[in-house]
TrEMBL record:
<keyword id="KW-0663">Pyridoxal phosphate</keyword>
<dbReference type="GO" id="GO:0030170">
    <property type="term" value="F:pyridoxal phosphate binding"/>
</dbReference>
<dbReference type="InterPro" id="IPR050103">
    <property type="entry name" value="Class-III_PLP-dep_AT"/>
</dbReference>
<comment type="pathway">
    <text>Amino-acid degradation; 4-aminobutanoate degradation.</text>
</comment>
<dbReference type="InterPro" id="IPR005814">
    <property type="entry name" value="Aminotrans_3"/>
</dbReference>
<dbReference type="InterPro" id="IPR004632">
    <property type="entry name" value="4NH2But_aminotransferase_bac"/>
</dbReference>
<dbReference type="GO" id="GO:0009448">
    <property type="term" value="P:gamma-aminobutyric acid metabolic process"/>
</dbReference>
<comment type="similarity">
    <text>Belongs to the class-III pyridoxal-phosphate-dependent aminotransferase family.</text>
</comment>
<keyword id="KW-0032">Aminotransferase</keyword>
<dbReference type="GO" id="GO:0034386">
    <property type="term" value="F:4-aminobutyrate:2-oxoglutarate transaminase activity"/>
</dbReference>
<dbReference type="GO" id="GO:0047298">
    <property type="term" value="F:(S)-3-amino-2-methylpropionate transaminase activity"/>
</dbReference>
<dbReference type="InterPro" id="IPR049704">
    <property type="entry name" value="Aminotrans_3_PPA_site"/>
</dbReference>
<keyword id="KW-0808">Transferase</keyword>
<dbReference type="Pfam" id="PF00202">
    <property type="entry name" value="Aminotran_3"/>
</dbReference>
<protein>
    <recommendedName>
        <fullName>(S)-3-amino-2-methylpropionate transaminase</fullName>
        <ecNumber>2.6.1.19</ecNumber>
        <ecNumber>2.6.1.22</ecNumber>
    </recommendedName>
</protein>
<dbReference type="GO" id="GO:0042802">
    <property type="term" value="F:identical protein binding"/>
</dbReference>
<dbReference type="InterPro" id="IPR015421">
    <property type="entry name" value="PyrdxlP-dep_Trfase_major"/>
</dbReference>
């Protein structure tokens, strides 16, 4: 009950809410889709290019990238459709957020149809897909279209939630209030807990016994969640994420000035990335990304790659990390870039 009350208080919007607790992010995403289908009486679900939503059957269907997440594991759940995301680095300067939203909505209306669509499921900032931050205006335009057409707008904040992006939830950066919001990962500091929180009338649509799980909302994970939320608030970790953003973006921008392989630097808060390309263009360079990551790892700094093309270096520093430690890490990263050039 205390965790549900905290989610009611913290998640965007002042409407009446309900929460259902589960164990993993993928499980929560699946249940969000079940709730949306029960509420609307419709079947179709739209996800986006470069999306990642989990490794269960339905969430694999929602996920865009084949290897390593989907290959050999089909067939996948039906009635899942894909729309183009706003990807500023690859869309080019001529397509702003509103234009990218019109492009996506046009695909949805032509290939699915609003009358058959239960939910639009989207990461406000994509995670495994490459830490892609949609252009301003993209998310609000999608949210408005969903509201106008009775489609449930589901924000997958499994990676972005709980202070990671310099707001408690990434939706808040553009004032977007989702119908359903999915949380996990940071909710309980690493213990297995996830949640779907949303408008009471939508959450109440599922019949009794239709939602649940053996370990969902277990007492240990709930205690951890309450402690994690208390720590985030008491230690000002939302503000700390914004401080990390300034430091890391400064270091990445300087690296970009020195190394033409860095085509784009992006992100929010302590969820940041550098996209590597062949110098002089936008052709992905996954080999360089892998080489830089391996070289940094050999010097004690763990850097992971991500993105549809495997050419993005992602940075998720602990919100408790001090500036000195971050500078030490990026000194190692600078050496890794220099030695692999």
């Amino acid at each position: 009950m205390a965790v549900a009350e905290a989610l009611d208080r913290l998640t965007p919007g002042d409407h009446a809410k309900r929460s259902a607790l589960f164990s993993s992010g993928a499980e929560a995403v699946e249940n969000a889709v079940k709730i949306a289908r029960a509420f609307t009486g419709r079947d179709a679900v739209v996800a986006f290019d470069h999306a990642y939503h989990g490794r269960t059957n339905l969430t694999m269907a929602l996920t865009a990238k084949s290897m390593p997440y989907k290959r050999g594991f089909g067939p996948f759940a039906p009635e899942v459709y894909r729309a183009p995301l706003s990807y500023p680095f690859r869309d080019g300067p001529g397509l702003d957020g509103a234009g990218a939203a019109r492009r996506a909505i046009d695909v949805i209306e032509k290939q699915v149809g609003a009358a058959d669509l239960a939910a639009v499921v989207i990461e406000p900032i994509q995670g495994e897909g490459g830490f892609i931050v949609p252009a301003p205006g993209f998310l609000p335009a999608l949210r408005d279209w969903c509201a106008e057409n009775g489609v449930v707008f589901v924000a997958d904040e499994v990676q972005t939630g709980f202070a990671r992006t310099g707001a408690m939830f990434a939706c808040e950066h553009e004032g977007v209030v989702p119908d359903l919001i999915v949380t996990a990962k940071g909710i309980a500091g690493g213990l297995p807990l996830s949640a779907v929180t949303g408008r009471a009338e939508i959450m109440d649509a599922a019949h009794p016994g239709g939602l649940g799980g053996t370990y969902g909302g277990n007492p240990l994970a709930c205690a951890a969640a309450l402690a994690a939320i208390e720590t985030i608030e008491a230690e000002g970790l939302v503000g700390r994420a914004r401080e990390i953003e300034r430091l890391v973006l400064n270091r990445l921008t300087e690296l970009r000035r020195l190394d033409p392989r860095i085509g784009d630097v992006r992100g929010r808060g302590a969820m940041l990335a550098a996209e590597l390309v062949k110098p002089g263009g936008e052709r992905p360079d996954p080999a360089s990304a892998a080489a830089v990551a391996a070289t940094a790892h050999a010097q004690g700094v763990i850097v992971l790659t991500c993105g549809t093309y495997g050419n993005v270096l992602r940075f998720l520093p602990p919100l408790s990390a001090g500036d000195d430690l971050l500078h030490d890490a990026f000194d190692v990263l600078a050496e890794a870039f220099a030695s692999t050039r």
